[in-house]
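Objective 1b of the project was to move from sequence-level analysis to a structural picture of ligand recognition. The entry below was assembled by the postdoctoral researcher (A.K.) and checked by the PI before modelling. It contains the amino acid sequence of the target and the SMILES of the bound compound, zinc ion.
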Amino acid sequence: MEINLAELLRSHRLHITPIRLSVLTVFYKKNTCLSHEDIQRALQHRLDRVSVYRTLRIFVKKGILNCIPTSGNSNMYALHDFGSTDGQTVQHALFICERCGMVYPLKVADIRVTELPGNFTVKQFDIVMNGKCGDCS
Ligand SMILES: [Zn+2]
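Corresponding predicted holo structure:
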């Protein structure tokens, strides 16, 4: 699927800057959940940490990315519709290996909260699993 990244930025009322285009390109190319460090590595550390961090914050605020907090005190980021099953509620499931620290995005379907107060609306629903990956078991 070809995505016009400039158009995507424009539709979220964001100015088009090289750093924004670079960060977005990484997400569309990798099509997975990424940490700040993953993005830095993908960009071969050509951009400074603070600028990348600021860009991620803006994307989260504008709803382009979702931020998924993990127990390791770090955040993972994913494109908003990554893992979406109904186009409305976004479900992200991550498996984090407690030994090597690798993060594996997993496909999930139909995990429901059976009781939600009537006037609540769910926009994002994250599942973070911790354990040992195949290599570390
Ligand atoms: Zn592992």
